[in-house]
Amino acid sequence: MTGATPAGEAELYDYLRDHGIAFRHHTHPPLHTVEESRALRGDLPGAHVKNMFMKDKKGAIWLATCLEDREIRIRDLEKEIGAKNLSFGKPDLLWESLGVRPGAVTPFGLLNDREGRVNFALDARLLDFDTINVHPLHNEATTAISRDDLMRFVALTGHEAVVVDFDALEALARARAESGGHAAAG
């Protein structure tokens, strides 16, 4: 996205319409945490997600989208996706890469990754839901989109989802905790 103005909600929705991707828009006060989202969303159906924007020691950039209640150790995730020494990306890199600010990280940010720098990891369990709810490039609304249309959007932006078994990662973390931190990676 270097040098370009990032797409905002209007451009995102135009892009979705231009590609025949249906969506539903829900406006709400700014949300910064999963807890705030749970308190304000009411009975909005579908999967609700959290997103992690990360960078590894070699400069590879990752966006991971998973169910909102996941408790994942970054070290386990990096082994699964082949990254080394992942850490959360800085706000300037987030803006430069996905055109969003902290608190508004979303797979829709891939629209702004015109250089294809961002790798995308997706929780396999999200594929079990018909509808997935994500931010539309800011945190004052939620966009509901079908699972199939989200996957089509990802492909249209030139990205490929690395589907990750987050259930297995959580099981590994639980086993490690129960054994005093010494569970072997599988």
TrEMBL record:
CDD domains: PrdX_deacylase (cd04335). Residues 28-153 form the YbaK/aminoacyl-tRNA synthetase-associated domain. InterPro entries: ProX/PRXD1, YbaK/aa-tRNA-synt-asso_dom_sf, YbaK/aa-tRNA-synth-assoc-dom. SUPFAM superfamilies: YbaK/ProRS associated domain. One of its GO terms (molecular function) is aminoacyl-tRNA deacylase activity. It holds the Pfam family tRNA_edit. It comes from the Bacteria. PANTHER family: PROLYL-TRNA SYNTHETASE ASSOCIATED DOMAIN-CONTAINING PROTEIN 1-RELATED (PTHR31423:SF3), YBAK DOMAIN-CONTAINING PROTEIN (PTHR31423). Belongs to the PRORSD1 family. This is Prolyl-tRNA synthetase associated domain-containing protein. It comes from Thermohalobaculum xanthum.
